[in-house]
Task: inverse folding
C-alpha cells in the first residue's frame, strides 16, 4: 500500500493577477511530492470552493496581494462550511498586514504565510498539520 | 447515507474521495468499487489525447459546453504526469475549464499518472468506473498521448479523439508514434493558423494510405478555429461532438462496442489478477526478506529469474502456500 | 575604446601578474563563495580591464549625449537642464482620498502625477460588480465614471503638471475621461500632457490584468497612438513596460528584451494598420523599467536599452526624426526586492535602486515606500520615498554630470553583454513570428516562470541573500504604521455610482455605446466615441463590456 499523497490546491481569489508567488509555490509543492491542483488567478470564492470539493484536496492555499483577502478568504472558508467540507484546511498568503491575522484566524484560516516565509516552512507546516484522512 | 449510495446519487465529494482512496490503494476502497461495479458500463467514454501544447484542455472545455447544451451530464478526468523525481505533480488542466466549475452537471477531477508508463494509472480506470456509477452520460478522459510506450487510453475509451495543432513541427512524427492507429476522430486545433491546411492534407493522405480498419470506420478530420470567434467556434465544436457521437453509433451498429467492452473487461480482469495475486506475493516475499535474496542470487548469476519464478509458482499454486 | 597596442600589452602583463597573486591568495584565503553573480544570475568577473573593452569604438558605441546611439542619454544638457521628474505612483480609496494625497505630494515637491487604480477599475469592472467584492479602493483609486475622475483631478493644474495613468485594458476609457475632464475645464487637448500605460502585451506575459485577446488589444492601442499623434501631441500614448515583467521574476536581460520586442510589435502594428509614418508617432512612445537591487546591472541595462532602441528605430524602421530614436523612460524601484521583515531596511534598498535609475539616466522616477510590502503607503513613508529622490538630486552630486559611469571597463563591458544577450532574445522571438506568436506559444511566460523559480531555489539554498529574510533575521518585530482602507469606501462608491446612473440620460448612453461597438467592428478609431460616452456618464464597465462582447474575453492559459 502506498503512502497517502497529499493533495493541495493553490488558488488566487479576486482580481489580482500577480501570480509569481502562487506559481512558485505550485512548483515547490510538486517538488515536495504533493499533488497540486493549480487553478490560477481570477477565481471567485465560489469557484475555489467548488473546485476544492471536486478535487478532494486536503488543503487550499489562497494568495492575494490586492487587499481583498479580508473579504475573500473568509468567504472561501464559509462556502466550504456550507458545502459540508470544513475538513478542508485553508491557509493564506500574500500582502496581509499583521493586524488582519486575528480576524482571519477567527474566520477559520489556519495559517498565514507572508512574503519571505521560507517555502520549506510552508511544506513542513502542511506535513505536520494535515492528517490525511483514512 | 452510505458512501456507495451517495456516489450513485451523484455526491461529488464522496466520489472524489473514493477515487483518491483507489489512487492511494487504501484497503477500504476496493470493496466499495466492487459494490459500484454493477452500475458501471452505461456511460459513453471519450478519450482526448495529443501532444503537450496541442490545446486538448481548450477542446475538452468546448466539448463540455456542447454536451451540456444537449443536457448531458459530464464527468472529466484530466490527467497530468507525475514528476519522476519527486513523485509530486502539478495538475493544471482545470484552469482551461473554469467556466464549468460551478455547473452541477459537470464533475472535473484531476489525476496524476503516478508513474504509469502508458499515461494512465490503474486508478484512472477505477475513477472512470466511479464516474459511471454516478450516472454521468459522458466521461471525457484527457491525457497526454505521446512519449508513452503504450497508449492506455485505448483500453478505457470507446472513442478516441486525437488533437493536433499546426506549427508544432513534428506532426508527422506524432502520427507515426501510434496516434494514427488509435484515433477515431482527428481534431485540428487552431485551424485558422497558417499550416493548418497543409496538416489537414498530409493527414488525409496518410489516412488513405493506411489499411482499412476492420470495421471500416474512416476517422474524420475536424478543424476547430479561433475560439475568439464564438459563433464559428461553437459550430465547429458541434461538428466535432457530432462526429464523436457518429463514431459511437457506428460502434454500436457494427458490434464493435461490445467487442471493445469485452476487450476492456479482459484487461481489467488481467489487471485485477495482478493486483490480487502478483502484488500480495511480492509483498510477502519482500516482507520475509526472500525477495532480496532472490534478487541477490539473480544478480550474482547463481540462478536465473525464470527458475526463481517457477519455484515461487510451484509453492503457491501447486503446494498451496497462503498468500 | 582605443587603446594602443603597447597599453594592451602592458595591461595583459599586469593582469597576468595580478592573476598569479590571486591564485596564491586563494590558497590561504578562499573567496566568500564559489560564484559571484548579479541578482539575475549573470556572472561577474573579479576584475575588468581595458582588455574587456578593447573593441569598443567610442564614437560609434558610446558617443555624446543627444547623439546616436544615445547611450549617454537623449538630452544634450542632461540633468543640468532638468532633473528627472519626481513622479510618485499613488492612489487609494475614493477619488477624493486620492486627490488629497496628490495635493500633499505636490506640496512636498513632487513634479509629476502618477495614478494607481484599484483592481475593479484595472480590470474594467464597476465598483458594484460582484467581481469587485472586497477590492474597491484597496490598492488604488476607484473610478467608475467621469464624475469620479473630475473629483480625482480637482484643482490639479492640467497645463502645468503631467499625469501618468497606470491603466491597461480600459486605457482608452481613462484617457477619454482625462480628455473630457480637460475639455470641461477649458483646457485644449493640445495643451495636456501625460502618459497612459496602455501596454497589453506585457499583461499577457506578466501582469495578467487582461480583458480581450492579444490582437484586438493591440488594435485598441494603435487607435490611441493614432488619436494622440493627431489631437493630443503632448501625450505619451503608451508606456511600454518592463517593470512588471521583472516583478514576475524575469532576469534583467529578459526584462529588457521582452519590453523592447513588445515595442517593436506595437510599432509594426501602427505602421501596418494605420498606414502611419514611423516618425509621426514614434516620438511619443515611452517606456517603463524596473530598478532592481543589483546596482551595476541596472545601470547597464538602462544604458543598453537606449542603444538597442535607437538601433531598432533607425535600422529596422528607418526612422529619420532624432526624437523617434530617443528612448524616454520612467523607472520604478523594484517592489519585489522589498521585504516584510524589518521593513525599515526597505528605505536603503529603494535608495540604492533610485541611484541606479538616476545613473542610468531615467526621465522620471517613482521610489517605493518602505511599507509597500505590507499595505498602501502611509503619508510618512511616502514622504521618505519622495525625499530620497530629492536628496539624490540636491545633495549627492550625481546629477552634476552626464552618464558618470561611462568609460568604466566594467560598466561598458556589462552594458555590451546585456545588449548582446537581449538581441539574442529579440531575434529568437522574431523567428517565432513575433511577440503575439511567442505569447501564444507560452515562450516569454515560461522563461519568466523558470527564472522566478530558479531565483527562489537560490534563495532557499542561501546562494542569494535577502537581509532580514534568510540572513540577519531577528525575532523582534519592527512595527510600521499601516494604512487601512475602510470597507465603507466600497459602500460609498456604490452609492455614488447608483446616483450617477439615476441622473444620466440613458438614451445618450445607449447611443454612445452603440457607436463604440460599431467603431470596434470597423477600422474606425474608437477614441472620439469613448470621449462622447464618458461625457454621457457611461460607466467604465459598460464600455468594457462592449469590448468584451465584440472581441471576446482572454482566458489565462495557466502556464506555470
Result:
Amino acid at each position: 500500500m502506498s503512502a497517502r499523497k497529499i493533495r493541495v490546491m493553490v488558488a488566487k481569489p479576486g482580481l489580482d493577477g500577480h501570480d509569481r508567488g502562487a506559481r512558485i509555490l505550485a512548483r515547490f509543492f510538486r517538488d515536495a511530492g504533493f499533488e497540486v491542483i493549480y487553478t490560477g488567478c481570477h477565481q471567485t470564492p465560489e469557484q475555489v470552493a467548488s473546485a476544492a470539493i471536486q478535487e478532494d484536496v486536503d488543503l487550499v492555499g489562497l494568495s492575494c496581494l490586492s487587499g481583498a483577502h479580508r473579504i475573500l478568504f473568509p468567504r472561501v472558508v464559509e462556502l466550504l462550511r456550507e458545502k459540508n467540507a470544513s475538513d478542508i484546511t485553508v491557509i493564506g498568503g500574500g500582502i496581509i498586514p499583521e493586524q488582519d491575522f486575528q480576524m482571519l484566524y477567527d474566520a477559520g484560516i489556519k495559517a498565514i504565510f507572508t512574503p519571505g516565509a521560507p517555502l520549506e516552512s510552508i511544506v513542513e507546516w502542511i506535513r505536520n498539520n494535515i492528517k490525511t484522512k483514512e | 447515507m452510505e458512501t456507495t449510495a451517495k456516489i450513485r446519487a451523484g455526491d461529488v465529494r464522496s466520489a472524489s474521495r473514493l477515487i483518491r482512496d483507489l489512487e492511494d490503494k487504501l484497503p477500504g476502497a476496493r470493496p466499495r468499487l466492487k459494490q459500484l461495479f454493477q452500475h458501471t458500463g452505461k456511460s459513453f467514454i471519450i478519450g482526448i489525447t495529443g501532444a503537450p501544447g496541442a490545446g486538448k484542455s481548450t477542446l475538452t472545455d468546448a466539448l463540455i459546453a456542447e454536451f451540456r447544451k444537449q443536457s448531458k451530464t459530464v464527468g472529466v478526468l484530466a490527467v497530468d504526469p507525475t514528476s519522476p523525481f519527486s513523485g509530486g505533480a502539478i495538475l493544471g488542466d482545470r484552469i482551461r475549464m473554469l467556466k464549468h466549475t460551478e455547473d452541477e452537471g459537470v464533475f472535473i477531477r484531476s489525476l496524476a499518472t503516478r508513474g504509469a508508463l502508458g499515461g494512465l494509472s490503474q486508478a484512472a480506470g477505477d475513477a472512470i468506473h466511479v464516474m459511471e456509477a454516478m450516472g454521468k452520460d459522458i466521461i471525457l478522459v484527457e491525457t497526454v498521448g505521446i512519449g508513452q510506450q503504450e497508449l492506455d487510453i485505448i483500453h478505457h475509451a470507446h472513442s478516441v479523439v486525437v488533437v493536433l495543432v499546426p506549427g508544432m513541427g513534428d506532426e508527422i512524427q506524432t502520427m507515426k508514434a501510434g496516434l494514427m492507429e488509435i484515433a477515431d476522430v482527428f481534431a485540428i486545433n487552431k485551424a485558422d493558423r497558417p499550416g493548418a491546411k497543409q496538416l489537414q492534407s498530409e493527414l488525409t493522405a496518410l489516412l488513405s494510405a493506411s489499411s482499412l480498419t476492420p470495421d471500416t470506420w474512416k476517422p474524420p478530420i475536424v478543424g476547430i478555429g479561433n475560439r475568439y470567434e464564438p459563433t464559428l467556434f461553437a459550430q465547429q465544436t458541434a461538428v466535432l461532438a457530432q462526429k464523436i457521437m457518429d463514431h459511437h453509433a457506428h460502434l454500436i451498429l457494427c458490434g464493435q462496442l461490445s467487442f471493445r467492452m469485452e476487450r476492456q473487461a479482459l484487461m481489467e480482469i488481467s489487471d485485477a489478477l495482478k493486483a490480487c495475486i502478483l502484488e500480495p506475493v511480492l509483498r510477502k516475499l519482500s516482507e520475509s526478506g526472500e525477495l532480496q535474496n532472490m534478487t541477490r542470487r539473480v544478480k550474482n548469476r547463481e540462478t536465473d529469474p525464470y527458475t526463481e519464478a517457477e519455484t515461487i509458482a510451484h509453492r503457491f499454486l501447486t503446494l498451496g502456500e497462503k498468500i | 575604446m582605443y587603446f594602443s597596442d603597447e597599453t594592451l600589452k602592458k595591461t595583459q602583463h599586469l593582469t597576468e601578474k595580478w592573476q598569479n597573486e590571486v591564485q596564491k591568495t586563494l590558497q590561504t584565503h578562499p573567496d566568500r563563495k564559489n560564484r559571484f553573480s548579479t541578482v539575475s544570475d549573470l556572472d561577474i568577473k573579479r576584475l575588468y580591464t581595458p582588455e574587456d573593452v578593447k573593441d569598443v569604438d567610442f564614437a560609434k558605441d558610446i558617443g555624446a549625449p543627444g547623439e546616436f546611439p544615445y547611450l549617454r542619454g537623449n538630452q544634450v544638457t542632461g540633468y543640468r537642464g532638468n532633473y528627472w521628474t519626481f513622479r510618485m505612483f499613488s492612489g487609494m480609496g475614493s477619488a477624493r482620498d486620492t486627490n488629497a494625497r496628490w495635493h500633499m505630494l505636490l506640496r512636498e515637491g513632487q513634479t509629476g502625477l502618477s495614478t494607481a487604480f484599484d483592481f475593479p477599475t484595472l480590470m474594467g469592472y464597476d465598483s458594484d460588480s460582484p467581481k469587485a467584492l472586497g477590492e474597491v479602493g484597496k490598492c488604488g483609486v476607484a473610478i467608475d465614471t467621469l464624475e469620479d475622475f473630475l473629483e480625482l483631478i480637482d484643482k490639479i493644474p492640467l497645463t502645468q503638471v503631467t499625469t501618468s495613468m497606470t491603466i491597461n485594458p480600459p486605457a482608452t476609457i481613462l484617457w477619454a475621461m482625462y480628455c473630457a475632464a480637460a475639455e470641461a475645464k477649458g483646457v485644449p487637448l493640445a495643451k495636456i500632457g501625460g502618459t497612459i500605460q496602455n501596454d497589453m502585451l506585457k499583461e499577457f506575459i506578466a501582469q495578467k490584468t487582461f480583458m480581450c485577446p492579444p490582437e484586438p488589444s493591440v488594435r485598441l492601442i494603435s487607435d490611441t497612438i493614432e488619436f494622440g499623434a493627431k489631437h493630443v501631441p503632448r501625450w505619451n500614448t503608451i508606456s511600454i513596460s518592463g517593470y512588471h515583467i521583472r516583478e514576475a521574476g524575469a532576469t534583467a536581460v529578459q526584462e529588457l528584451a521582452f519590453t523592447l520586442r513588445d515595442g517593436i510589435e506595437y510599432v509594426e502594428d501602427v505602421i501596418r494598420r494605420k498606414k502611419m509614418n514611423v516618425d509621426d508617432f514614434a516620438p511619443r512612445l515611452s517606456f517603463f523599467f524596473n530598478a532592481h537591487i543589483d546596482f551595476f546591472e541596472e545601470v547597464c541595462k538602462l544604458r543598453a536599452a537606449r542603444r538597442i532602441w535607437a538601433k531598432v528605430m533607425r535600422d529596422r524602421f528607418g526612422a529619420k526624426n532624432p526624437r523617434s530614436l530617443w528612448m524616454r523612460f520612467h523607472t520604478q524601484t523594484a517592489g519585489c526586492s522589498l521585504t516584510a521583515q524589518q521593513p525599515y531596511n526597505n528605505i536603503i534598498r529603494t535608495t540604492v535602486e533610485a541611484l541606479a535609475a538616476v545613473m542610468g539616466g531615467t526621465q522620471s522616477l517613482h521610489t517605493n515606500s518602505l511599507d509597500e510590502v505590507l499595505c498602501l503607503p502611509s503619508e510618512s513613508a511616502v514622504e521618505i520615498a519622495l525625499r530620497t529622490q530629492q536628496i539624490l538630486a540636491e545633495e549627492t552630486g550625481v546629477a552634476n554630470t552626464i552618464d558618470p559611469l561611462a568609460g568604466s571597463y566594467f560598466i561598458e563591458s556589462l552594458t555590451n553583454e546585456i545588449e548582446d544577450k537581449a538581441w539574442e532574445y529579440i531575434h529568437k522571438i522574431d523567428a517565432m513570428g513575433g511577440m503575439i506568436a511567442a505569447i501564444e506559444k507560452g515562450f516569454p511566460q515560461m522563461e519568466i516562470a523558470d527564472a522566478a523559480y530558479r531565483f527562489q531555489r537560490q534563495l532557499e539554498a542561501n546562494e542569494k541573500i535577502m537581509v532580514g529574510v534568510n540572513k540577519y533575521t531577528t525575532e523582534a518585530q519592527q512595527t510600521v504604521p499601516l494604512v487601512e482602507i475602510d470597507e465603507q469606501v466600497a459602500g460609498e462608491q456604490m452609492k455614488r455610482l447608483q446616483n450617477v446612473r439615476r441622473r444620466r440620460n440613458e438614451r445618450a448612453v445607449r447611443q454612445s455605446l452603440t457607436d463604440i461597438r460599431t467603431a470596434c467592428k470597423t477600422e474606425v478609431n474608437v477614441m472620439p466615441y469613448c470621449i462622447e460616452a464618458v461625457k454621457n456618464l457611461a460607466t467604465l464597465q459598460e464600455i468594457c463590456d462592449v469590448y468584451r462582447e465584440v472581441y471576446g474575453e482572454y482566458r489565462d492559459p495557466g502556464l506555470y
Notes: Helices of chain A lie at 20-31, 45-54, 69-82, 101-106, 119-129. Chain A is about 40% helix and 25% strand. Chain A has one domain: 10-110.
